[in-house]
Amino acid sequence: METKLLTIDNIAEAGEIIRRGGLAAFPTETVYGLGASAYDADAAAKIYAAKGRPSDNPLIVHVCSKEQINDVAEDISDDARRLIDAFMPGPLTLILRKRDRISDGVTAGLPTVAVRYPSHETARALIKAAGVPIAAPSANISGKPSPTTARDVLEDMNGRIDAVIDGGQCEVGVESTIVDTTRGTPVLLRPGGVTYDMLKAVVPDIRLDKNVLSSLAPDEKPISPGMKYKHYAPEAQVTVVEGEKDAVQAKIKELLAENKGKKCGVLIMYGAVYDDAVMINGGYENSEYARNLFAALREFDRLGTEIVFAEFRENDGCALAVKNRLYKAAAYRVIKAEKTAKRPCI
Ligand code: AMP
Ligand code: MG
């Protein structure tokens, strides 16, 4: 199959592909999605095949209006309604009770469905053109960093899907915030552009799932099936080095010296100072770092980097989202860099 590269002038064509049971990738404000009709179980199966996605990891259903949420979900709680009113359209996904017309192929057999109403104009126009809600996970090979440009999508999906719409770089850069509203008190399952503080302002008793920042116990069954899989991992081995500027830079210099002879890279937050390393700028603000993170991880791989050290410190509302992705990309290899005590002058 040849994958067509479409522009925003070809949205009708992409909508037609989806309506007829094909696969089209499209830009959103978070990352690129790989879309199929949410009412077509065979099309959903094609998504799993194209991504190599485990069949028990459900898809997010994208709609283009608040009214359309009622076509795919029912028994929507008061808290869920508050969150819809506050943050949709935008980078928020809610877990709701599913209607029968959403196939088990989309929800991996769960009685619930993940629903998102994106703010990105192209995404909304595509859902409208398709005439059906669009089931779409991120448009990457399972386990790899999510794509934030059409080039990233093609790197993974060329020849596996019918088309990709090129809409430039995604603004948020990490996947949507996911909140489960089907178990009483809402639970934040995945942090994203709608931050924990923003959610708390609307639903004060919302809780954070404990798996957001730690790995699962060996036999633990997570609420969100996606939590148990390897995620966001480039070929390079990633280590997060976390802390204040001086301590982080000193630690990374030490690590680079220990790994001389290997092709090393540094994902920069504080400013470039390293010799003999591939350096890519993540950005100082966590929101900027979120936008650049996946693109940087992919670029390190293109450059053949074997080991990546990622500078990191929490400094704004996007910190939790970045930390969650970065820790997973690093398989929880995190070094807390401490300030070394200055020697007393004698
Ligand atoms: P992706 O679109 O690649 O970001 O993946 C969608 C994420 O949503 C995965 O982590 C899924 O496990 C999660 N998800 C989708 N549907 C549900 C659901 N019904 N309940 C809990 N998590 C879900
Ligand atoms: Mg994904």
Characterization of the model:
This protein has helices at residues 11-19, 41-51, 66-72, 78-87, 104-107, 121-130, 150-157, 196-202, 245-258, 286-302, 319-329; strands at 4-6, 24-26, 33-37, 60-62, 73-74, 92-98, 112-116, 134-135, 163-165, 177-180, 187-190, 207-208, 237-242, 264-268, 278-281, 307-312, 334-336. It folds into two domains: 4-208, DHBP synthase, CATH 3.90.870.10; 237-336, Rossmann fold. The model has no long low-confidence stretch (mean pLDDT 95). The chain contains eleven helices and 17 strands. The protein is of the alpha/beta class. Strands 1, 2, 3, 4, 5, 6, 7, 8, 9, 10, 11 and 12 form a twelve-stranded mixed beta sheet that branches. 31% of the residues lie in helices and 19% in strands. The structure holds adenosine monophosphate and magnesium ion. Adenosine monophosphate binds next to strand 7.
Structural class by secondary-structure content: alpha/beta
How far the N terminus sits from the C terminus, by CA atoms, comes to 74 Å
The Rg value, from CA coordinates, equals 21 Å
Q: Beta-sheet strand percentage?
A: 15-25%
**What is the arithmetic mean of pLDDT?**
95
The helical percent reads 25-40%
Query: Total domains, how many?
Result: 2
CATH topology of the largest domain: DHBP synthase
CATH class of the largest domain: Alpha Beta
User: What are the bound molecules?
Assistant: adenosine monophosphate, magnesium ion
Give the ordered list of helices and strands: EHEEHEHEHEHEHEHEEEHEEHEEHEHE
How would a textbook summarize the main sheet? Answer: 12 strands, mixed
How many E-type strands? Answer: 17
